[in-house]
Amino acid sequence: MDQQLKPAETLAAGRKPVFPGESDAYRDARTALLAEEIEFRRHMTRLVEQRQALPPGPLIEKDYRFRDEQGFEVGLSDLFGDKDTLVAYFWMYGPERERPCPMCTNWIGSVDGNAADIKQRVAYKILGRSPVERQFAFAQERGWRNTDFVQAIGDDYANDLGLLTPDGENPALVVFRRDGAGIRLFWMSEMRGEMADPGQDPRDAPDIASLWSILDLTPEGRPADWYPRLRY
Q1: Helix-strand-coil percent breakdown of the chain, rounded to 5?
Q2: Which has the closest alpha carbon to 78: 89, 64, 58?
Q3: CB 79 within 8 A of CB 112
Q4: Rounded Cα gap, residues 68 and 151, in angstroms
Q5: From CA 72, how far away is CA 161, in angstroms rounded?
Q6: Are the CB atoms for 123 and 86 separated by under 8 Å?
Q7: Which domain holds residue 78?
Q8: Whole-Å CA distances, 150 to 69, 90, 131, 217, 228
Q9: Residues 34 and 73 in one domain
Q10: Burial of 13 (0-12, 13-18, 19+ CB in 10 A)
Q11: pLDDT in tens, 50-94
């Protein structure tokens, strides 16, 4: 496939500026950047294909229990509904927290606008340790309309995924797949804090949160000492 692709530099050389008045320095730098952007797109495509080609993951043997928004106790398999794939985000809103994590809040909010579309293809749930009524009340406060919340009964799920530490909770994005043998782990975010590059916060690739994706397009980029808040 790669042999059939035109070199990124060749494609970038066909760039047609929209506004007049570019300096030679801007033109050359922007054309070089466009070539890098094309290469990055191709690398991301390869990464997606590599993820999709993962062999079957481990079977989930434990019967994790949850409480849905109707108050019914359900198992992990019930969270799939009529889908074979479940995207589950565990957010930092345990019963000991007065308010949820602002970063988790921003992540959920950015996905909520697309959740109705996402759920056409896969099951999508937000899992938390707080009572489901408390999670749903916060969702109403934020104006989220398309996100489903589930309460983890007990801490087995969080403990088994290594999300509870002496310092508190950690978030996790996990994708499960259901097949004839049962429920398997397909993929889980495993970029831990110690994997962060110097001077950077821990983050996944790709970065799903639109906040950072938009700020990455700006001259200032990601502020080193700024984080979203629950209120402004």
Answers
A1: 35, 20, 45
A2: 64
A3: no
A4: 6
A5: 24
A6: yes
A7: 65-188
A8: 6, 10, 8, 34, 24
A9: no
A10: exposed
A11: 999 999 999 999 999 999 999 999 999 999 999 999 999 999 999
Clarify whether residues 97 and 72 are in a common domain: yes
Strand, coil or helix: what is 26? helix
Q: How many CB atoms lie within 10 A of CB 107?
A: 23
Same domain, 74 and 104: yes
Distance from C-alpha of 92 to C-alpha of 96, rounded to nearest angstrom: 10
Q: Do 49 and 73 belong to one domain?
A: no
Q: How confident is the model at residue 195 (pLDDT cuts 50, 70, 90)?
A: confident
Site of tokens 């700024």: 226
Same domain, 130 and 96: yes
Distance, in Å, from the CA atom of 145 to the CA atom of 52, rounded to the nearest integer, reads 30
Contact 90, 163 (CB under 8 A): yes
Q: How many domains does the chain have?
A: 2
- Contact by Cβ (8 Å): 184, 117: no
Q: Do 54 and 90 meet the contact criterion of CB atoms below 8 Å apart?
A: no
Task: Tell me how long the chain is.
Answer: 232
pLDDT in tens, 129-174: 999 999 999 999 999 999 999 999 999 999 999 999 998 999 999 9
Structure tokens at 156: 């087995």
Question: Is the full-model pTM beyond 0.85?
Answer: yes
Which helix H or strand E contains 186, and what residues bound it? strand 182-188
User: Phi and psi dihedrals of 2, rounded to 5?
Assistant: -60, -35
Tokens of 36: 């890098």
